[in-house]
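Handoff note, outgoing to incoming analyst
You'll be picking up this chain. Sequence as last confirmed:
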Amino acid sequence: MNLKKIKQNTLRFIGQITLFHAVNILCKTLKIEEINKEAVEKLERDNKNYVFAFWHGTMLLPWYINRNKNFLGLISKSKDGDLLANTLRNWRYQVVRGSSSKGGSVALEVMIDYAKNKTSVAVTPDGPRGPALKLKAGVVIAAKKSGVPLVLAGVGYQKKKYLSSWDRFQVPKPFSKVKLIYSNPIYVEQTLTYEKTSETIRQCDYKLNELQTKAAIFGL
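Most recent structure output, in case you need it:
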């Protein structure tokens, strides 16, 4: 390995460690409200796995809330995905790399296997390249084939900074109010036809955007 490569790897490692600690410090200052939390608490009390889906642009809070639960996290194979994967491993997630555009079919099969036999799965259904706020089929297919429910979550940050990325990634400001609204568990019958499955995908897309809109509303 040449000196340039060693330097790049060292800087990348330092960046990963710095990001993890910075995100941890930020999240610990947030005033978190979870609405309909009892829906997922009941699943967890009953030892039932589920597929947990939230938009890519608001993913910081749901990843943080579910740390130390040993969830499976589906992360893209991009360089940005490298940073997120490191943070999630430090939060005790099991990480699988893949997406709808690269390594997707293998990643979907892993999601199905884990949800059915091992642990709950968390995923951003509009990632890793968008279009933003448009639910791709994978989460519904995973819930259908594994037989576990799908739980959607809208995420709102009262005070935030937008990054200039395809998803307009939102970073909550320290000590601000944040909100996560869970849907009730959505069960997708394994016997659904292609047409009915497509309709379920459209309904879930509508529902997740509805939850997102509600989560973004804060009182005075």
